[in-house]
Amino acid sequence: MKKIILICVFIFLAFVSFYLISNKRNEDLSAADAKRIECEVLKVKKLIDTSSRYNKNVAFFIDMKIPSGKNRFFVYDLKTNKVIDKGLVAHGSGSETGVKGKLRFSNVPNSLSTSLGRYSIGNKYVGKFGKAYRLYGLDTTNSNAFKRDIVFHYYYDVPYKEKDGYICNSYGCPMVNKKYFERISKIIDSSESDILMSIYY
Fold first, then answer.
1. pLDDT tens-digit profile of 74-126?
2. How many CA atoms lie less than 13 Å away from 122 in the CB half-sphere?
3. What's the Cα-to-Cα distance from 196 to each of 16, 115, 123, rounded to whole Å?
4. How many Å apart are CA 94 and CA 39, to the nearest integer?
5. What are the angstrom distances between the C-alpha of 99 and each of 102, 160, 175, 192?
6. Helix (H) or strand (E) holding 190
7. 70: how many CB neighbours lie within 10 A of its CB?
8. What is the pTM of this model?
9. Rg of the chain (C-alpha set)
10. Measured between alpha carbons, how far is 68 from 72 in angstroms, rounded to an integer?
């Protein structure tokens, strides 16, 4: 009997810990950041409802309003409406304007810019940056993603932890730290349906 009570107490404490950690992850967002991601979540859920091919449990969100030195790649649990993981992500060098905090975006080939919009994460492959995932743009703002070779990949120069200022740039791809990529990769590889990624500003 004592053993059963101890097991129940352990399960209860584990549940409470998970709940508090999940809440903390959402609380870390400023009111403006939280409002933006909530708006994007609604758009992604609406798209998911149009097709059974999309994952209904998890989606990725990248907030380009947040400086690149801060966590702005969010793994979002669509069932509990919680951010369950987050990390740094680089944007395209062509998105730089020379004005601090202001970015530009483009869907034009060779622009080296990040494209805003919703993406479907496709097949993995091994390229010049190692393991990567093809991205398919689902909006007019990112319709050239596949043609532009915009993929999700890692790069060693992307820091793992937050830092003051800005991090390195990509050629337009969402590019993360290898350690963080490995966590995200497990989610993608274990999914039987296509996961959506939304890049917004």
1. 999 999 999 999 999 999 999 999 998 899 999 999 999 999 999 999 999 99
2. 12
3. 29, 15, 13
4. 26
5. 6, 25, 22, 42
6. helix 178-190
7. 16
8. 0.86
9. 18
10. 7
